[in-house]
Design brief:
The chain is 29% helix and 20% strand. It has helices at residues 78-87, 107-117, 139-145, 169-182, 193-203, 211-218, 221-238, 250-261, 272-276, 279-285, 298-310, 346-356, 361-364, 370-375, and strands at residues 4-8, 11-14, 17-19, 21-26, 29-35, 46-50, 55-58, 60-65, 90-95, 124-130, 151-155, 186-189, 242-244, 266-270, 315-316, 393-397, 402-403, 422-423, 426-432, 435-439, 443-444. The two termini are 41 Å apart.
């Protein structure tokens, strides 16, 4: 007789919306859902999780993190990063190919990373591979490397990492062809480097301007827009499936939406920091909120929320890009590392903000669950609460609060722009394939159950609806 697990008394988010159902789990997989009044007699060997008073939602999928393993674990590591993600209700992450050392740009480095990560993660993980200036013409190496990757990551501007050089406009055509031939999604950091170089040189010479204001002016929305325009033009020409990461402007999202309507296979991610903070926060706080693209004016923040309400944003990713505090605490803003630590607070912050704005949770939750799974070929395993899928859940109480106390920060370097913020909800439990990996009373489970996952074979980037 197999041991069963039941999740009972929760308000469960399903394809039909929130329902009062019981979830029966066998061997880490959702077996069936029962309306409470039709619950059958249970077998003898049954474990029960009482979710009374909680929302039960699919475990969140964060398609954009930098956990820096191997090589830069003083910045972060998959042990600390995945622990923080689990505390925040995330059960799957996609780790980016840079900020680890070496960057993942060939088969040898990829295999080294796969081996190194084994048994170190609290949650499931997939891997991005890197297409760069130095490998984009090595089609044989890339074709060997691509098996099992969630997709390719390309920078259209300086990445800040020496062994991950950006792909220049002429080379992006080759990157598009490679991704199409291999049936891999091409994720793009879209900023136009020539414009950034020119503006940076200009604004660094403006003595009457604060450094923080100069930094914002050096990376305008127009640099993002120009890069997006160029990438969309190539995607239309070659038929490549592309995914724009961390888009910061509603104007740019609208442009991508028009491209979708024209038939281009494109999706767009934004991040919680673009939906919570604005350029005034950066001017006041400084390097803790430095990122690229930078934070935008408040009207852009509001515009992005309008885009969410319109259904134009496809996914939310944390873009958790950690570093040592000393790399933020620099004499000049130009020298500070550009990246935001936030994977633990992504969904606390977003759901809290959505509730304040009276945006239905049914419109927000898929951006970190079903739509991510659909776009990246995981819909047969992740992203929904339905029979046959992994039993990955987050139990959320809307009757309790969470304070982002610095001492509670679980990623390696305990600082974040979310410090001391209060969220009007609480992650009570995080469950990965039927195992409770985090409980708000007991903390995280000591054993690490995370596994390497891959998109389903033959899948190529369907646009979620």
């Amino acid at each position: 007789m197999k041991t069963e697990l039941w999740v009972k008394n929760g308000y469960v988010f399903t394809e039909e919306g929130f329902r009062n159902v019981c979830i029966k789990i066998k061997d880490g997989v959702i077996y069936t859902l029962y309306e409470s009044e039709h619950e059958p007699i249970q077998e003898t060997h049954v474990n029960i999780i009482d979710a009374g008073g909680c929302l039960v939602v699919p475990g969140f999928i964060d398609a954009h993190v930098h956990f820096n393993d191997p090589g830069r674990t003083d910045w972060e590591g998959i042990e600390t990063g995945s622990r923080a993600a689990a505390i925040g209700g995330t059960t799957t992450i996609f780790d980016m190919p840079l900020n680890c050392s070496p960057s993942i740009t060939n088969v040898e480095k990829l295999n080294l990373k796969k081996e190194y990560l084994t048994s170190k993660s609290y949650i499931d993980y997939a891997l991005w591979g890197g297409l760069t200036d130095s490998n984009v013409n090595n089609s044989l190496e890339l074709s060997t490397m691509c098996e099992g990757l969630i997709g390719w990551k390309v920078f259209m501007s300086d990445s800040g990492i020496d062994d991950f050089p950006y792909v220049r406009p002429g080379q992006l055509k080759q990157a598009m062809k490679i991704a199409l031939e291999q049936k891999k999604i091409l994720a793009l950091h879209a900023e136009w480097q020539d414009e950034i170089d020119s503006l940076t040189a200009f604004y660094k010479q403006q003595n009457g301007m604060s450094e923080r204001s100069a930094f914002l002016a050096s990376r305008p929305i127009s640099a993002e827009e120009r890069a997006v325009d160029y990438a969309l033009e190539l995607a239309a020409k070659y038929g490549t499936a592309i995914h724009f990461v961390h888009i910061s402007s509603a104007k740019v999202v609208e442009k991508i939406q028009e491209a979708k309507k024209s038939g281009i296979n494109v999706t767009v991610e934004t991040c919680p920091h673009y939906l919570i903070f604005d350029e005034e926060d950066f001017l006041k706080t400084g390097a803790i909120l430095k990122c690229a693209p930078p934070l935008r004016p408040r009207e852009e923040v509001e515009g992005l929320w309008d885009c969410i309400s319109n259904g134009w944003i496809d996914t939310i990713g944390s873009d958790h890009s950690p570093c040592l505090y000393s790399m933020k605490n620099t004499d000049s803003i130009w020298d500070a590392w550009g990246g935001i630590q936030g994977v633990q607070f992504t969904w606390l912050a977003l759901l809290d903000e959505a509730l304040k704005r009276k945006i239905p949770l049914k419109d927000i939750l898929p951006l970190g669950t079903a739509k991510v799974a659909d776009r990246f070929g995981l819909s047969g395993k992740k992203g929904r609460i339905q029979p046959g899928l992994d039993a990955d859940f987050a139990l959320i109480s809307l009757d309790e609060t969470t304070i982002a106390d610095p001492a509670s920060i679980a990623f390696r370097n305990q600082y974040s722009p979310y410090e001391n913020r209060t969220f009007n909800l609480k992650i009570k439990k995080t469950i990965l394939r039927g195992k409770v990996i985090y409980d708000d009373k007991r903390g995280e489970e000591k054993e690490k159950y995370g596994e390497f996952i891959q998109p389903k074979e033959g899948f190529y980037g369907s646009v979620p609806h």
